[in-house]
Design the sequence.
């Protein structure tokens, strides 16, 4: 359920997408110096260390491990930023509020 309404035309603003005149994720990342590449690099470096530390031992459930490791701090930060307003947090994350509640419960954040 998307409640975005079109805004008036913005003159040549690369930060705004054409459909709803809302900031695109890529443009926001560039604008606020939060580099998607730096997040990817951090994950990559930590996975390299994880495999190095494992040595010859078999790895398993890596996907779940990484998602859970990234998801909890992301949820904590979004909830802090929205003063624990779940509707705002869900909108910021681009997920349904029921999904947010489920994830908050999974991580012991409720």
Sequence:
């Amino acid at each position: 359920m998307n409640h975005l309404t079109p805004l008036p035309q913005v003159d040549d603003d690369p930060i705004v997408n054409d459909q709803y005149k809302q900031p695109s994720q890529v443009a926001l990342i560039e604008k606020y110096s939060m580099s998607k590449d730096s997040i990817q690099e951090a994950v990559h470096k930590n996975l390299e260390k994880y495999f190095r530390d494992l040595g010859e031992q078999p790895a398993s459930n890596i996907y779940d491990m990484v998602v859970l490791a990234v998801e909890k701090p992301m949820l904590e930060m979004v909830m802090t930023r929205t003063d624990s307003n779940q509707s705002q947090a869900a909108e910021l994350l681009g997920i349904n509020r029921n999904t947010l509640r489920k994830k908050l419960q999974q991580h012991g954040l409720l």
In short: The two ends are 24 Å apart (CA to CA).
